[in-house]
Specification:
By secondary structure, the chain is α+β, with helices and mostly antiparallel strands. The protein is built from eleven helices and eight strands. The strands form two sheets. A four-stranded antiparallel beta sheet has the order 1-2-6-5, with no helix packed on it. A four-stranded antiparallel beta sheet has the order 4-3-7-8, with no helix packed on it. A hairpin with a 2-residue loop joins strand 1 and strand 2 (64-71). Helix 4 (179-210) runs antiparallel to helix 7 (284-306) and helix 7 packs antiparallel against helix 11. The longest helix has 32 residues, at 179-210. The N and C termini lie far apart (78 Å). The relative contact order is 0.14.
Length: 401
């Protein structure tokens, strides 16, 4: 007997594609009719309008305060008056008129603020509702000119490229240690990455909660993490297939080092965002401490990158340099983005990408720390994981100064 083959036709000899298209067409017709009839049965929403404006960016220039606001509520908002510290001020409403849902507007306030002052800005809407915004310490916002972006690129180099390169200088030392201790070094990398993943998740949740949640808030953290995890999984499959086809010695170690460098690079992108945004809003002291703290913090990341390479054949200088650029250069990009177009929801999404990448890389590293009996958790690996987490915790204390 011949096996039955799937038919392209369903019941009644109708084409299968037609059987799928007909329900879709009926659904579209039903929604169109509902819209044309004005949503019968729903009625108008009762109660006062729900008005909400989120301040996405504050720019301070001599004699004026500029607020970039976005309507995050369901109803249109018209800003009628603005007061600073309970005193009404003149302001330019930008394009004028009501701000529709998800629309943005720039309000320019004519106000002689004083450096270091604390200001409470109240926006009075046409319905009498009040929306407040706080400026904790007024500092003139740096102009986004070429010299400023050059400074951001330099700071990104200090934070990303140089520390990672210094950490990678440990590769000759790592190549001379025994296999048991090599597993401990790889476990150190796992502990380091696990700490970064936890720290990034907590940071992303804080940033997401502080955002207006117009486009998702904290959900963007998990969306970015899933996107990065699945993308790196696909990249790993591709690299594994190439390695098996080429049968090249040492290819497995370089693939693992590449995955580690990619995960760390995406994490450093988030660190660059923090530095760039701190300088953009005038928090110069905070930005300086972040640079110093992240620079020391990231030196250990260079060790994590070269640890897998110490087990195989000696890689070329270009390969090692490329890994350093992949891991460190995103800090430069993050600093530029943070200085020019910082947004809490964009930052949440990018931090999520870093977290997802790191989680995927940890899964790639776990088989490398197994002992001869196949146990991933043994005395050297446990000690290495604890040491990796402790190293980042101790160097991370400088970031919180």
């Amino acid at each position: 007997m011949e096996a039955a083959t799937p038919s392209a036709r369903g019941p009644g000899s109708a084409p299968r594609w037609l059987l799928g298209a007909m329900p879709l067409a009926l659904i579209a017709i039903a929604f169109a009719a509902f819209a044309l009839l004005g949503g019968p049965g729903l009625g108008d929403r009762r109660g006062p309008p729900v008005e909400d404006l989120a301040v996405e960016r504050t720019v301070l220039r001599p004699g004026e305060i500029e607020l970039a606001v976005r309507n995050t509520g369901p109803d249109a908002v018209t800003v009628s008056q603005v007061s600073v510290n309970d005193a009404f001020v003149d302001f330019d409403p930008g394009q004028g008129g009501a701000v529709g849902r998800l629309q943005s507007r720039v309000l320019t306030l004519d106000y002689p603020w004083v450096e270091g002052g604390v200001y409470t800005i109240s926006m009075l809407t046409s319905t009498g509702a009040t929306i407040d915004h706080q400026i904790d310490s007024a500092v003139e916002t740096p102009e986004a000119d070429p010299s400023f972006f050059g400074l951001m690129a330099l700071l990104g180099t200090y934070v990303g490229l140089i520390p990672v390169a210094l950490g990678m200088l440990f590769m000759p030392f790592l190549r001379g240690i025994r296999e048991r201790w090599m597993r401990a070094v790889l476990a150190f990398t796992v502990g380091l990455l696990a700490f970064l993943a936890i720290d990034g998740t907590l940071e992303g949740i804080d940033v997401g909660n502080a955002s207006a949640a117009t486009f998702g808030g904290v959900e963007l953290l998990f969306l970015g993490a899933a996107l990065a995890y699945l993308s790196l999984a696909a990249l790993d499959r591709y690299l594994t297939a190439r390695r098996e086809a080429a049968k090249g010695a040492g290819a497995g170690e370089f693939r693992l080092a590449l995955m580690v460098a990619t995960g760390i690079g995406l994490h450093n992108l988030g660190e660059g965002l923090a530095i760039g945004s701190a300088y953009a809003i005038g928090e110069l002291a905070l930005g300086a401490f972040l640079v110093i703290g992240f620079a020391l913090h990231n030196t250990t990341e260079g060790i994590a990158i070269v640890a897998p390479l110490a087990r195989g054949e000696r890689p070329g200088l270009r390969c090692v340099a490329a890994l350093g650029v992949i891991a460190g250069a995103p800090a430069i990009l993050g600093a530029v983005i943070g200085a020019s177009a910082y947004n809490e929801e964009l930052a949440t999404f990018l931090i999520g990408i870093g977290v997802g990448a790191i989680v995927q890389v940890i899964g790639q590293l776990v088989p490398s720390i197994r002992d001869s009996e196949g146990r991933a958790l043994n005395i050297p690996s446990i000690a290495g994981i604890i040491a990796g987490g402790a190293a980042l915790y101790l160097t991370g204390l400088l970031v919180a100064v």
